[in-house]
Amino acid sequence: PRIAVVVVAAGSGTRLGAGGPKAFVGIDAHSVLRHALNGVFAAPSAQVILVVPAGREGDAMTEALSAAGEERRDLVSVVAGGATRQGSVAAGLAVVWPDIDIVLVHDAARAFTPPDVFERVIAAVGVEAPGVVPVLPVVDTIKRVVGDDVVGGVDRSELTSAQTPQGFDRAVLDAAYRVADREHTDDAALVAAAGHRIVAVEGDAASFKITTPADLDRARGLAAKHPP
Ligand code: C5P
């Protein structure tokens, strides 16, 4: 199958507080986006689509070529994102080539996602189900709280946290985006709402999403331990 990876990198980075769009914040000598792209280009994709803040398309292409090599320029597309993550994914889907069979949607903010997570997702799409999401078990005990009152526990054994890359049959993902009439928490939820089966594969702790300043510190620690 021909695979495209849509890398959403158009977030504002407000919670990170680094004074600019998160994808372009430096972890070490390299940005969040550049670290994410090292993993993306290791996966066997025919097309890589970067969805970035309007005005940063040129910077994104520069990052892509430094990660992928100039000779892979033709497989990279760059588009401006939307006001929400879902809008940004939709902008990416609009430029997926006609001959693509499988689409992976990946958060640039999960900059250290290991290659074997991409492999597990790709191996399961269309074989196990039209949608695949990498998950990790929840380690904390979960409480339902209303106001200040703990109103009950939740059975942790069935709970997981969802990561990316999430992989989909291309036609299923396109159709689900066409009929989506509200914001969903992730692409798997949007595709499930359209009536499709989603299966889980094992995620990885290294795929954590860089969101807060503490996450950025953790990313800097990881980058120092695993220099490029
Ligand atoms: O905000 P959060 O970190 O949950 O966003 C997850 C991913 O979605 C990030 O990689 C971010 O750049 C991307 N995003 C986007 N467009 C938005 C909001 C978020 O591409 N409008």
TrEMBL record:
The chain holds residues 7 to 234 of 404 of the full protein. Its EC number is 2.7.7.60, 4.6.1.12. The keyword Transferase applies. This is Bifunctional enzyme IspD/IspF. It catalyses: 4-CDP-2-C-methyl-D-erythritol 2-phosphate = 2-C-methyl-D-erythritol 2,4-cyclic diphosphate + CMP; 2-C-methyl-D-erythritol 4-phosphate + CTP + H(+) = 4-CDP-2-C-methyl-D-erythritol + diphosphate. GO terms for biological process: isopentenyl diphosphate biosynthetic process, methylerythritol 4-phosphate pathway; terpenoid biosynthetic process. Pathway: Isoprenoid biosynthesis; isopentenyl diphosphate biosynthesis via DXP pathway; isopentenyl diphosphate from 1-deoxy-D-xylulose 5-phosphate: step 4/6; Isoprenoid biosynthesis; isopentenyl diphosphate biosynthesis via DXP pathway; isopentenyl diphosphate from 1-deoxy-D-xylulose 5-phosphate: step 2/6. GO terms for molecular function: 2-C-methyl-D-erythritol 2,4-cyclodiphosphate synthase activity; 2-C-methyl-D-erythritol 4-phosphate cytidylyltransferase activity; metal ion binding. The record marks R156, K209 as: Positions MEP for the nucleophilic attack. The gene is ispDF. The lineage of its organism: Bacteria, Bacillati, Actinomycetota, Actinomycetes, Micrococcales. The record marks R15, K22 as: Transition state stabilizer. Keywords: Isoprene biosynthesis, Lyase, Metal-binding, Multifunctional enzyme, Nucleotidyltransferase, Transferase. Belongs to the IspD/TarI cytidylyltransferase family. IspD subfamily. Belongs to the IspF family. It comes from the Bacteria. Residues 1-228 are annotated as: 2-C-methyl-D-erythritol 4-phosphate cytidylyltransferase. Its cofactor is a divalent metal cation. Bifunctional enzyme that catalyzes the formation of 4-diphosphocytidyl-2-C-methyl-D-erythritol from CTP and 2-C-methyl-D-erythritol 4-phosphate (MEP) (IspD), and catalyzes the conversion of 4-diphosphocytidyl-2-C-methyl-D-erythritol 2-phosphate (CDP-ME2P) to 2-C-methyl-D-erythritol 2,4-cyclodiphosphate (ME-CPP) with a corresponding release of cytidine 5-monophosphate (CMP) (IspF).
